[in-house]
Every structure is written in structure tokens, then in C-alpha cells.
Specification:
64% helix, 66 residues, 5 helices, mainly alpha
Length: 66
Amino acid sequence: MYGKRIRDLRRENNYTQKELATILQVDFRTVSFWETERFEPNIEQLIKICDTFNVSADYLLGRQEF
């Protein structure tokens, strides 16, 4: 669930994977791996993603709707 939400939020905000990676201070491949759910963001990364898109962790993790 989090992978689709990250991808959708990134696209809604017109970020490329590389642009989002720069904002979050990770490698662009990490963003790709999150979006395909090959890797999970750690707690610090999860907080940065939520802050960047102004969403809750519950939303990002599929525990609540927007």
C-alpha cells in the first residue's frame, strides 16, 4: 500500500523519482524500491515522506483514507 501511495503523491506533486530522492536525501533507486515495495522506508524516512507531502503515516501506510 505505501508504495502506491508514495508513487501517487510523487506524481500529484509533479516530482520525478530523482527530485523526490534529492528532497528526502536518498538515492533515486531507493524511491523506486519504495514504490515497488522492494524496500520499506525506515522511521526517519517515513517522517520525511509524510512531512514532504503533508500526510499522516496512517494514510501512507494504508491505515486511513485521505
